[in-house]
């Protein structure tokens, strides 16, 4: 069982939980299935999105859409 759920808050006040479990495919993202590694995220100072020590990152637009939920 993966536990990579992160609470996000955007500058416009939009916030919520994002469960990344279904998104962790590919060479850089699959290691994030390990909850210990998933928790090691930070916010990239220039791009203002989540990134991890292994070089993985996710587009802020993608994360924003995930917080908003289905259209």
Topology:
Elements (H helix, E strand, L loop, with lengths): L4 E5 L5 E5 L15 H4 L3 E2 L6 E2 L8 H9 L3
What does this structure look like?
- By secondary structure, this protein is of the alpha+beta class.
- It has one domain (5-68).
- The chain contains two helices and four strands.
- The protein has helices at 35-38, 60-68, and strands spanning 5-9, 15-19, 42-43, 50-51.
- A two-stranded antiparallel sheet has the order 1-2. The chain has a two-stranded antiparallel sheet with strand order 3-4.
- The longest helix has 9 residues, at 60-68.
- The chain is globular.
The portion of residues assigned to helices is: 10-25%
Average residue pLDDT: 92
Please trace the helix and strand order, writing H or E for each element. EEHEEH
Q: Low-confidence parts lasting 5 or more residues at pLDDT below 50? A: none
Please outline the major beta sheet: 2 strands, antiparallel
Strand portion, in percent?
15-25%
| Count of alpha and pi helical runs | 2
Query: How would you name the oligomeric state of the polypeptide chains in this document?
Result: single chain
Helix/strand-derived class? alpha+beta
Number of domains: 1
From the spread of the alpha carbons, the general shape counts as globular
Number of strands: 4
Please compute the radius of gyration using only Cα atoms.
12 Å
Distance between the termini: 27 Å
């Amino acid at each position: 069982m993966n536990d990579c759920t992160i609470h996000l808050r955007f500058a416009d006040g939009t916030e919520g939980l994002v469960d990344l479990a279904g998104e962790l495919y590919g060479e850089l993202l699959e290691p994030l299935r390990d909850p210990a590694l998933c928790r090691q995220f930070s916010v990239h100072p220039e791009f203002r999105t989540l990134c991890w020590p292994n070089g993985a990152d996710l587009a802020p637009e993608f994360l924003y859409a995930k917080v908003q939920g289905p259209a």
